[in-house]
Amino acid sequence: MPKETKKEGEVQKLNIKDVTTCPATAQMLEKAERDGVETAFHRAATMKACPIGADSACCKHCSMGPCRLNSKDPYGRVGVCGATIDTIMARNFARMVASGAAAHTDHGMSMLDVFREVVNGKIKDYTIKDPMKLEEVAREIGIETEGRETAEIATDLYKELERTYVQVEGEIPFAKRVPPKTLETWRKNGVVPRGAMREIMELMHRTHMGVDQDYENITKQCTRTALADGWGGSMVATEISDILFGTPTPVRAEVDMGCLKENQVNIIIHGHEPNLFESMLESVNDPTLIQAAREAGAEDINLVGMCCSGAEMLSRHGIPHAGNFMSTEAILVTGAVDAMAVDVQCIKQGLAKVAECYGTKLFTTNPRCHIEGAQHVEFHEHKPKECTDAIVEMAIVRFKNRQMPVEIPRIKSMGIHGFSHEYINYMLGGTFRSSYTPLNDNIINGRIRGVAGVVGCTNPRVKQDWVHVELVKELIKNDVLVVQTGCSQIALAKAGLYSPEAAHLAGAGLREVCEAVGMPPVLGLGSCVDNSRILIACAEMVRVGGLGDSIADLPVAGAAPEWMSEKAISIGHYFVGSGVYTVFGVTFPIIAETKFHKLLFEGLEKLGFGKWGFTADPYEMAQLMVRHIDGKRKALGIDKARERVLMDMAARRDLEAA
Ligand code: XCC
């Protein structure tokens, strides 16, 4: 990464245009450097990634090591215990999956805890906002709903979904949603999850020193654990959040740092669990607190989201979103943030220092996540407003005593968000015949070539947002409909791809569908746990028919072009386990051409699963995905239809030119 030399007492200067394509973040990085404030971008420039760790050629699971193998000669030696490179890499990879799955599962469990207490009447501040969805989910997993009270169904649903976590034998409840042929593949390979806790525990055990030392067998449990995340922990998080807080429907909303307002008390919520954010939404609308803000000289209270809880609230309520993972420190540099409240996951410890530099109050709220230097105000689901009211009050005090000049980038982008699986169903099929049939039909007739999920983080090792945006532009140009979640969704929203007008960037076929339905060519589904909406959409595409019998038959692909977290690896692996070709960017933590690498990139597909792919280049990534989609179209015998449409497209172009 090009950089200038650092003088004593100064922050390492970056070539900012090399590290981000987000203009607001760039503006704030320049200011940070003027102010002598360091961010993760600066630390990434001065801290070279460990080359041994990057290749996963290091084992530190016991104190006979840590053992370092040589990634240039991976089979040249083994660890002290005799562990081969394949065992070491498989164990490291599996532990990333275990950690990522644990994060989503613990999040889902928290949602289920709230649901239980709402159902038994102990929590009064939240209610069941979407009883229709409650019934649908209950019906799908075999709970009787006919003529029963919502409370009764909810009690049964709680008991049933609890099995997702604690069950020790059998299959998790949402296995019932998996297309039969995909489920058959899972059963044949012994990877149907029993309960998420059991799978994660067993994976941690098997990757302990001296237990599972066969990379293929480790991968099996790794797949089972990842599936327990996608079809378990994450899916429960999404479904329960929809039931409690409402299922998203399309909503216009603004994204980027320009959502901050100079004359208002600005409060940012950053993290993952929607209950904190929902309560904050109540607090900022409390007339007493609004009055207090006005008395302090503010025009109002401005609530804004970041990262995944932001993406979720953007989808569900149209709350403005200020930016993705690599902008969380940069936004504090505006000096305009009066409080940032965080809960769990993707909260950089570096936030504490930047917040201190600008006098921003940084609050941790979850017992799982304290940060040295941040003020902890614990959030209790039974009395949620105690925490969020207190944070608003302290934000007002900070507003009143703002010490520094405020600089807010005047950049924001309007788009449409909130495309849940349920709404896609309705949007494509209409009120009285809601169905995925039109989607499948348009794929079969070739207007839409296929569907791609582009998701995941941003990472200071690559130019922020650039890989996401270039990849998605390439895909839609090639008539691939893109669905998104998390920080990737925010990257594209900032780039303006969430407006229906962005349809002109799509190929003729996709453009036609978008214009007919009035939708953007890129659909945002929410946060990272909401990747489970993509799984449900895939299952629905199989169920509707015409595109094969299993998810592995569908002309679909996935990508996380700028991933950084272990959760991303778990997500990637549950898509692969479900039958989807999934391409990651940045770097892949496995040595190419080893046996374990071949298993992930080729072998799993032969067993009926999907497979992994890797390239850091967005154009090559698009090519890999489009080629895979075309291969699936060919196997389904619908490639001819596509050719016909291509001719139609050419004919239309001639017409347009005439
Ligand atoms: Fe985190 Fe979820 Fe990644 Fe963004 S996309 S950096 S995991 S906030 Ni979820």
Describe this structure in words.
The structure is a single chain. The longest helix is centred in the N-terminal third of the chain and has 35 residues, at 85-119. This protein is of the alpha/beta class and 658 residues long. It is built from 25 helices and 15 strands. α10 (215-245) packs across α21 (531-544). Strands 12-11-10-13-14-15 form a six-stranded parallel beta sheet, with helices on both faces. It binds FE(4)-NI(1)-S(4) cluster (XCC). Residues 272, 307-308, 324-325, 346, 456-457, 486-487, 527-528, 565, 567-568 line the site of FE(4)-NI(1)-S(4) cluster (XCC).
Bound molecules: FE(4)-NI(1)-S(4) cluster
First-to-last CA distance: 48 Å
Structural class label = alpha/beta
Number of strands: 15
* Low-pLDDT windows of residues: 1-5, 644-653
Portion of residues within helices: 40-55%
What's the shape? Answer: globular
Radius of gyration computed on alpha carbons: 24 Å
Q: Output mean pLDDT.
A: 94
Main-sheet strand order equals 12-11-10-13-14-15
Number of helices: 25
Strand content: 5-15%
Largest sheet: 6 strands, parallel
List the helices and strands and how they pair.
Elements: H1 16-19, H2 23-35, H3 40-46, H4 51-54, E1 58-59, E2 67-68, H5 85-119, H6 131-140, H7 150-166, H8 180-189, H9 196-206, H10 215-245, E3 251-255, E4 265-270, H11 274-284, H12 287-295, E5 301-306, H13 307-317, E6 337-342, H14 350-358, E7 361-364, E8 375-376, H15 384-400, E9 413-417, H16 421-429, H17 437-444, E10 450-454, H18 466-477, E11 480-484, H19 486-494, H20 508-517, E12 522-524, H21 531-544, E13 556-560, H22 566-578, E14 581-584, H23 595-606, E15 612-614, H24 618-636, H25 639-657
Parallel strand pairs: 4-5, 4-6, 6-7, 7-8, 10-11, 10-13, 11-12, 13-14, 14-15
Antiparallel strand pairs: 1-2, 3-9
Helix pairs in contact: 5-7, 5-9, 5-10, 5-22, 6-7, 6-10, 9-10, 10-21, 10-22, 11-15, 13-19, 18-24
The structure holds FE(4)-NI(1)-S(4) cluster.
FE(4)-NI(1)-S(4) cluster (XCC) binds next to α13, α19 and α22.
